[in-house]
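ASSEMBLY PREDICTION REQUEST
Request ID: AP-0331
Submitted by: J.K., bench scientist
Number of chains: two
Total residues: 715
Priority: normal
Notes: Please return the full assembly, not individual chains.
Input sequences:
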Amino acid sequence: MSATLTQETGFSRDAVVALSEMKNEPTWLRDARLQAWDVYESIPMPARTDEEWRRTDVRALKLGNLHPFSPNGHKEPSLESLLSGFEKGGVTDRDAQAGILVQKDAATAWAEANPALVDQGVIYCDIDTAAREHEELFKQYFMTQAVPVDFGKFEALHAALWQGGSFLYVPKGVSIEEPFRSFTTSTHPANSVFTHTLIVLEQGAEAFLVDAYGSETFEGQSLASGVVELILGKASKLRYVQMQDWGRDMWSFMTERATLASDATLNSLHVTLGSRFSKSSIGSHLQGEDALAEMLGISFADGDQFFDHHTWQLHESPYATSDLEFKTALKENARTVYSGLIKVSEGAQKTDAYQQNRNLVLSREARADSIPNLEIAANDVRCTHGATISQVVPEHIFYLQARGVPYTEAQKLIVEGFFRPVIDRIPVEEIQGFLEGAIARKVGI
Amino acid sequence: MSKTPLFEVENLHVSIEDKEILKGIDLTVNDGEVHALMGPNGSGKSTLAYVIAGHPDYEVTEGTIRYKGEDILEWSPDERAQKGLFLAFQYPTVIPGVSMASFLRMAVKNVREARAEEIALNGGEAKPFTPREFRKLMREKMEMLKMDDSFATRYLNEGFSGGEKKRAEILQMALLEPQLAVLDETDSGLDIDALKVVSEGVNALHDSSDMAMLLITHYQRLLNYIKPDYVHIVMDGRIVREGGPELALELEEKGYENIRKDVAAAAAGN
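STATUS: Completed
Returned structure:
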């Protein structure tokens, strides 16, 4: 049972104070929230005159009707029932996970981490706990480096009202193969969910984290305003998968920035399936030499969904590599925008950057826009990009039909095939199965 | 009353983009019979194959195609396949990301389910088909066609050589067990060893069932391995000569040009 929402709707300074009081937060934390609130108030709402928002209209989102935060929740007795909305989340073997964190309306309903890892100094907990028990780490990394508070309007709001979230810290040299699994769900209408993921890998550390967001569809509008901060120390390796499957009432804003020190490797995959409106800004700062960022994306929009993905490959140091592939399928009246920038700073010689965006349009009414961009200030680099917008090849459908496969199933096979090469790049079968299941359900709509 | 033929094409006229390709084809195929349809490039052989399979780009302007006495022209391509028609494509399509095994499982499942319904309608009882049986059947058939195990995990026809694609087509035929199979230029692109393997596979299927076949080919070569009961020669959208296996040999000897002259002379004599 979720608690009844009694607080008023709309965002305000009072709401920030009320949230901080409800959580019994120390003064420094409350002050940090209030400072963020001031920043939020000082930044105007994004307008279509801003380049990044040119194709994205947020005027229909009525912030005044939303509950600014959720009440404190409680731990729940069974993981099974918590994950039912995620089709068990692909957690077929609990022992094969490094840790599991489930958040229901920003309250932690489940938290477990492999004790052997905890003994090695690994921290995996919600961010409230991180702020309380690991104050120094929190102060050092939370919205200070990857996504600073003044990054933008929604990021500042997030900094004022964040709740829950997950924090993963892996000390120097600790390497973990099994995935950490974070699940976030929203269970009432007109909700605001400020998901936050903060991952800090020290030198030589290796980790894998899967974020899954999901909810049923409620009346009216809800807001998910997420921030993801991935801090990769020297020669560390992070694999990060994010699966967004919110209900259709959700307006989702997600800003992710990774910072990569020298020799660090990031492999990320973003899967976007749910929400009414989704705007994701995903960027990697390649700050050290020989850093490598692989950034993958799968999204499938249907009905009246609007998805907007902006990607940033920011080469700030020489000899770094980035390899990006974002794939989108659309049907019915869906509308998607992809915009990607490869930006190479003056000193970033020998940069190798690749960017590809492919769109598969399944209906006449759907519309995809793809805007690749290059901004290069160095003179010895290799940067390639490509964008395609295509329709299903009728000969493919005919071939499958000629083998007895009905039209809709043929289309489903083709869409799954379109995404397959990206899914195949995820090395864990259980996670592959989880993604396949989610995509298959979506294709089957 | 005589038995209804398995398959009848009657006065079939077909156009694509307003250009008439088939100009009145008549053809009857009974259970278990093997028919060869021969003709030069552009004569309309492949058009007939596509029309039988239900390709949406071709427009039937006149005539009918009946299968077990039913007009099939309104049936979707998948419905035709489910009822037991099969086309081995001359140029099988490459579909990236779709694994051979998952595609075949879906195809077999759909065809089997349709067949089970038909059996149930006729008062029979259809056996359910388990994944284990499917794997066993697939292994068997792949062995028969001397196909490598890795086939199943590869994407549909992606990176397949010409010969591998043709084998994959026959594998599909073997799994779907059609009652009428149209083989469109299955011999093209096959070397002599591959041709033997494929022909043996086709013959084994034919011998173990009452499957009828329509072999579309340029050359006599295929017919050395798969023996036709009847041979039809198509030119310019019409069947101009019909006969037994000896007609293919005559064609091989004379070439299409001489046959064309014979036909023209015969027409002038009338």
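REVIEWER COMMENTS: DSSP finds eight helices and twelve strands in chain B.
SIGN-OFF: pending second reviewer
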